[in-house]
Amino acid sequence: MTSQTQPGRLxxxxxxxxxxxxxxxxxxxxxxxxxxxxRGAFAAAAAGVAATAARAADAPADxxxxxxxxxxxxxxxxxxxxxxxxxxxxSKYEANVRRRISPGLTQTTQASVAFAPLQSLxxxxxPSGLHFERHHxxxxxxxxxxxRLMINGLVKTPxxxxxxxxxxxxxxxxxxFVECGANSAMEWGNVAVPTVQYTHGxxxxxxxxxxxxxxxxxxxxxxxxxxRFLLAEGADGSGQSxxxxxxxVESGEVLLAYGQNGEMLRPEQGYxxxxxxxxxxxxxxxxYLRRIKVGDMPFGAKDETVGYADLMPDGQHRQYTSIQECKxxxxxxxxxxxxxxxxxHPITGLAWSGRGxxxxxxxxxxxxxxxxxxxxxGPVMSKCLTRFNFDWVWDGKPTIIxxxxxxxxxxxxxxxxxxxxxxxxxxxxHNNAIQSxxxxxxxxxxxxxxx
Amino acid sequence: MTSQTQPGRLxxxxxxxxxxxxxxxxxxxxxxxxxxxxRGAFAAAAAGVAATAARAADAPADxxxxxxxxxxxxxxxxxxxxxxxxxxxxSKYEANVRRRISPGLTQTTQASVAFAPLQSLxxxxxPSGLHFERHHxxxxxxxxxxxRLMINGLVKTPxxxxxxxxxxxxxxxxxxFVECGANSAMEWGNVAVPTVQYTHGxxxxxxxxxxxxxxxxxxxxxxxxxxRFLLAEGADGSGQSxxxxxxxVESGEVLLAYGQNGEMLRPEQGYxxxxxxxxxxxxxxxxYLRRIKVGDMPFGAKDETVGYADLMPDGQHRQYTSIQECKxxxxxxxxxxxxxxxxxHPITGLAWSGRGxxxxxxxxxxxxxxxxxxxxxGPVMSKCLTRFNFDWVWDGKPTIIxxxxxxxxxxxxxxxxxxxxxxxxxxxxHNNAIQSxxxxxxxxxxxxxxx
Lengths: 451, 451
Fold this sequence. Notes:
Two copies of one chain form a homodimer. Chain A is of the alpha+beta class. The first copy, chain A, has helices at residues 20-37, 41-58, 83-86, 163-167, 196-200, 213-220, 246-250, 302-305, 416-423; strands at 112-114, 133-135, 148-153, 159-162, 172-179, 203-212, 229-234, 241-245, 255-260, 263-264, 274-276, 289-295, 310-311, 317-318, 327-332, 343-352, 358-364, 372-373, 375-376, 386-394, 399-407, 436-439, 445-448.
């Protein structure tokens, strides 16, 4: 048996790690112990005692109990269960992983945005504590026993539901992404914001649980022949409301959601009830949902006429463009990160489409000259984030890293120039262009706009 | 258009909801507004002003700004983004949803258990703050920059990895359940603990991210011909260690995991590094993982000889029974809950198997006399929780509700008597019997042991 003092390929100075002498001693004891342990429980107990005795005999003369120079956590009693009132929190060493505001982007923190730290996230589930926030007039922690949902308009029987009523109906659970229509908005212009948290951080993904809206409309006797549009209205001060096409609801995908990632929705996400409209921009996922009204034409609400409309090159506004088209982004390496040395680096990122499943993601490590397919991490679900991974050996020279997603409809994520040719560059919403990260010779990564 | 004052089928007293007169006024304004809004953005803005003027004209003479008797959250500014240092927390109304200790079950809170509140959870993802806890000597929040993983034993090159080293290797993300081998332990005897939190709450499910252990063993040149067993060892004071069969590792499923539900592992779950051994009982998922040693026979560690061994009817202990067999439980309705009225009630629960995917779950609402298949909620993943749902109309009479899972190997979850016939009733570990909930005439649900 070799000692661990022989350096491994990736050996680094093991501060506060157990010392080599201690390791040799533990090795010897473990070997002894193992042969004895295997004879059974009683023998094992005896061997354990023997091993302890052996350790005691080796202890320094001054009686230092830390005979192996073990760190405190390896020899003392830790913290008890069910701390913090039985609801755990992240490590103190992860305090830098948090949602952030972009200073100066908004004049208040109530009509504002907090971006999710995509550069620090793994897999596809966004922890609810880090889910992006977009409020139009701040958020509230509403008493669920007092909250009501009204169904009215073109229905036989207008109805009012308590949360208990809703939660007693048959439910479904589904994983979906939600993206603000204004995600990556600054990238339309010449501003290259520094990190992926700010370029793409109005994006999150959760397992939602709730009741298909169509079931409740059926209970109310909605006229789905005349009533091809719904108004969804929130209870918070912004009076947020959006038109939802009935055909989306008839697909069964639109949910009256109360659950998110296993627990009740968080207050910032519309507790106790939110409309989940898979594939559609976040502004339609009405939070604090208090009313669904069935109507025979679009409702022309503020945030689908004045706001959330696409300014086209000819100066016209395109309205009701709600579906989030296929898009992807490399989250590591990304702007603000530094590659400390050349050699192997994993590339990872996220892809998504409001039209269905991701079919393929290509990665370029040469500024778009060549592309190779990334590994898609399963499960690949419809209207859900898909994690991709790609192996890369950096030669130390400056280069540009990009990803390009293709969805199951065959739609290919456009380059920035391709998108600009159709949409111009003066818009705010629905920017799904390929993102470019420049890796500089010193290893620093920055956001660049390539033509 | 009908007013919402016409009662819907489920109408209940709408406390603090908007008053009928206000609703009629808003309806009228919305109707006006809608016709105008549809002409375009400018017209919409004008109509918005007109609507505001109309509201002001309707305001009471005393100048009360709350002209529609709206609750404060519908007319005032809420809280800003990125509260709580940019890491959100659940609603204050959900304070009762927490992990709990079972008073008297353990003498300290460090060598103890906190159970997950399964009765309050949705879908399959367990929020990390509610993930069950099982510590042998308490938990620590260890500095990840000082943590090391050693690979030694039957390897060509013993190696020591920093967390940075590990996180630079290619990673995968997978959803898996983890269940303590002692989950449902009290059900072996005559103790019927009151709630599903205490009967089955040492069960959780997460999306884990990490490096397949086999990749690291390959780097170290592990002798996988002689070295058919691994010792996994934790850095905390309990010196937790377990033997892992090499064949499990060779499947690629065993992970050196640092990510859980999108973020770094929580301290209680072994931050910064934990072994993920899909399908295997939680004690083998070594937390604070500091060493993997390759050996040619099982290591006979304390918690696989003295502990976590099955006491069989003949008085022998069966060791190394690690796979969690197929199991399920109804989480609603469950012990401690009350059905307030007869009529429709959704039945929901969880099913899982350490052998692969869940193939079917049957539900009985008559104490096991008849069974009907439940709806399985996708995605159904291997060695992962599967949520099932079942529609039920309660006639108000006492009855027993049960669920029975079948996995893709064809294994059928046993009844309590079937399990006892093989295993006796004096064991602690690996109780996967069918759980029975008695719904009493008064609606109260309780745990019962049926023969």
